[in-house]
Amino acid sequence: MGEATKNDLIDKYHTSAKTIERDIAAIETLLGDYLNLEVKRERFVNDDGERDVRYLVDASQGPFLTQREVFIIAKILLASRSFDKEVVEHLINKLTRPLNQLQLAEHGADEINTLLKGERHYYRPVAEPTQLAVLETFLDAVYAHKKVIVDYRKRDGSIDKDYVFTPLSIEHFDYYWYVRGYKEVDTTKGAKGDEADAARILRCDGVLSIKIGPDATKRELEGFEADRNTVIGMFKGKNHQTQTILVKADHKAAKITIDRINAEVVGYYVDQTEFPASSLAEVPDDAPVKLKSRLMLGAGLYLLLGISGIEVLEPKELRLEIIKKLSDTLARYQLD
To answer: What InterPro entries does its record include (predicted)?
Structure first.
């Protein structure tokens, strides 16, 4: 709550009561038109026995984040580990500054800074944090329907130079930012016609340089499914398409698996016999659970599914690949 009194303002600015009232009226108009805020007036007698007017503005009623909302967003930002520490500090300071400037909370940002002090001090980003400038350029291109031209480091370490890409959407998953869109393939250099304008997903930390290009052809998110599961594969999927995956999970692992791969419960097993179910609540305790999801078959997926308590049922190629990877892992742990 912001407040000031007429007599204090007269003394501070060495002006008349009429000037103060005129200026307050102008401020009130601006606050009402742009921020939907109201200036309230309370008449009172001050300690000197003089009549006075207290002007009050409750900024929490405007389009501002509350102290609790700022705290929640700051916690999510720290947990993402996506950006360098300097970027995170800059963003948190911008979030908390209005709490002090507009007096949106009794103690301003002090309480938030106290609660986040340890987490901010020990914050460590991922090994390859996203550059904020890269993300902002992708956002600019999406809003303006522009192509971008990037130098992109692929997961195998090779670099695609002057990669022409039409970004359509931006999302975040497991510490990293991803951009969906279409890569333009030059058919004059040997690329097949059906490879042109192929659906792609770029991971932002792989972008070495980026600049805005020409206007983009209007496109929709067709050619691959527009859901968060497409990026769970992380690195490269089969033609960047999602596939239906069935897994068998023990009851303890089911909750984690549901969250990690955005799966739905479709059944459970009792002595090898399968029974239908649509939620974990319908599954008897300790019964193995059958889960279904649509995912892109990529390298990151093996990390998610190759955990204790999970058995991939379909597709067969994924099952065989996980068997091979687990066999290789077991071989590394063989005793001499």
So the answer is: CBASS_pafABC_assoc_protein, WYL_dom
Tell me the per-residue pLDDT of 117-162, one tens digit each, with 9 for 90 and over: 999 999 999 888 999 999 999 999 988 989 999 999 987 789 999 9
What is the mean predicted confidence (pLDDT) over 180-189? 72
Q: Is residue 229 part of a domain?
A: no
Bridge-partner residues for 183, per DSSP? 165, 198
**For residue 63, cis peptide bond before it (omega within 30 degrees of 0):** no
Question: Can you give the CATH number for the domain in which 176 is found?
Answer: 2.30.30
Burial 304-327 (b: 16+ CB within 10 A, else e): bbeeebbebeeeeebbebbeeeee
C-alpha–C-alpha distance, residues 256 and 274, integer Å? 21
Task: Give me the mean pLDDT over the 28-48 stretch.
Answer: 86
In a shared domain, residues 258 and 309:
yes
- Whole-number average pLDDT of the chain: 82
CA dist list (Å): 39 to 11, 19, 104, 304: 20, 16, 15, 55
* 318 and 296 share one domain: yes
Amino acid at position 165, single letter = F
Specify if 29 maps to a domain. yes
Task: For tokens 């931006």, name the residue.
Answer: 170
Q: Give tens-digit pLDDT for 257-283.
A: 787 777 889 999 998 899 999 998 899
State the greatest distance between any 2 C-alpha atoms of the chain, in Å, as a whole number: 93
Instruction: For residue 230, give the nearest of 269, 200, 191 by alpha carbon.
Output: 200
Least trusted range by pLDDT, from 47-51, 255-259, 268-272, 289-293:
255-259
What does the DSSP assignment read for 2-67?
A: EEEEHHHHHHHHT--HHHHHHHHHHHHHHHHHHH---EEEEEEE-TTS-EEEEEEE-GGGSS---H
In angstroms, rounded to a whole number, what is the distance separating the alpha carbons of residues 277 and 273?
13
Which candidate, 13, 22, 11, 106, places its Cα nearest to that of 67? 106
